Amino acid sequence: MTTANYPSVYLRKGRDEAVRRFHPWIFSGAIERIEGQANEGDPVRLFAHDGTLLGCGFFEGGSIAVRMLSFGTSITDFDAFFVEKIEQAYRLRQALGLIQPAPEAGAHRNNVYRLVHGEGDGVSGLVIDVYGDTAVLQAHSTGVYHHIERIAEAVVKVCKGEVTAVFDKSSATLPDPSIASVGDRFLIGKSTAQPVYENGLQILPDWLRGQKTGFFIDQRDNRRLVGQYASGRRVLNMFCYSGGFSLYALQGGAEEVVSVDSSARALSLVEHNVALNFGDTIAGGRHEGVVADAFEYLKGIAYGAFDLIVLDPPAFAKKRSALKNALNGYRKLNALALERLAPGSFLFTYSCSQAVSPEDFRLAVLTASVQAGRSVRILQQLGQATDHPVSIYHPEGEYLKGLFLYVE
Ligand code: SAH
């Protein structure tokens, strides 16, 4: 199909402002008419009311009706398009020092990184995470999924010799999972999960059965920060998943680290990872793993038992409609921790709900501080790791928010 054959989507008068400022989402309410038959996932050309070409994107048909891929021009060659986007993304990760696979990189050794972060890398609906020699793809849109094999080839081409296997894990992220009728699978090569390196620490990713693509890469910079302030502290890592924060705290000289998650499978990953780095699952008596509900566990701990707590819960608000309940959840959780921390403690608290703004989250933690009656100071405001860039034109991409607090 040449671009002239792409269906043409015309916007209502005055509804072209956001897309002219490079916002990549076209909402269904902004569309006046469509010329030609646009099916979900098809490439379409987008026009302003006066007929000016605004760009090209994938038709999605939902409330986000079109995800833009180019602005001002159309796309003729999708092979070249994906190679170019992935090359740009790879160069940024290189510039950030995140591609350090060789053993001699030592403490800097790093071969786990997010290669493509959706809109932040100019491809709305696509996530690519690299775990050593394996890239894991997740399509969040039908249009992207239609090109998944081409994307896999582009990754291997760009990450020359480094990535040799590409796994598609889109069944959990597609708006309509039935289009992934073949299920999750290797698109190129084959591999089994091997430990990867993050800042010199070893971690076993679990892309087959694990959450997201197998690991929470977005917390890398925050984990390093925890490691920096953990020396001599009694650390509680709540919602630990595979224990990333625990590893950095142990490495940073924590006196004691307790990792808590409601999933027994997560805890077995933590113990595996602790043993990989510190010789045994208890790190010479400094580490303990607990399977428990976070709220129940926090209620049961004594005042002053910990002087560094990490709270990294799953998204409490998956949708805007759930915002009020989510804020209540963050308030309760933070109050439980704030009421129990020893004087002179650090609290690292996060929200990964996209629907919760940094201001909302801060207000929830403020309310928790009032409820706990503690003196609380903000030391730093935190966000997602540098390989999860946010397009300045797409503030919705800033989903991970955190506060580094000092509690007296
Ligand atoms: N901090 C982790 C990522 C956390 S993901 C990291 O850096 O890798 C959220 C985790 O919370 C998941 O592992 C999930 O099993 C766990 N979880 C969800 N609800 C929970 C609850 N009520 N109590 C304890 N853990 C819970």
TrEMBL record:
Cell compartment(s), UniProt: Cytoplasm
Pfam families noted in UniProt: Methyltrans_SAM, PUA_3
One of the GO BP terms on file: rRNA processing
UniProt GO cellular component terms: cytoplasm
Keywords: Cytoplasm, Methyltransferase, RNA-binding, rRNA processing, S-adenosyl-L-methionine, Transferase
GO molecular function: methyltransferase activity; RNA binding
Domain of life (superkingdom): Bacteria
Annotated TM spans: none
Keyword Disulfide bond listed: no
Source organism (scientific name): Porphyromonas gingivicanis
Boundaries of every PUA domain copy: 7-91
Presence of keyword rRNA processing: yes
Protein name according to UniProt: SAM-dependent methyltransferase
Family: Belongs to the methyltransferase superfamily. RlmI family.
Record-linked PROSITE patterns: PUA (PS50890)
InterPro entries in alphabetical order: PUA, PUA-like_sf, PUA_sf, RlmI-like_PUA, SAM-dep_methyl-trfase, SAM-dependent_MTases_sf
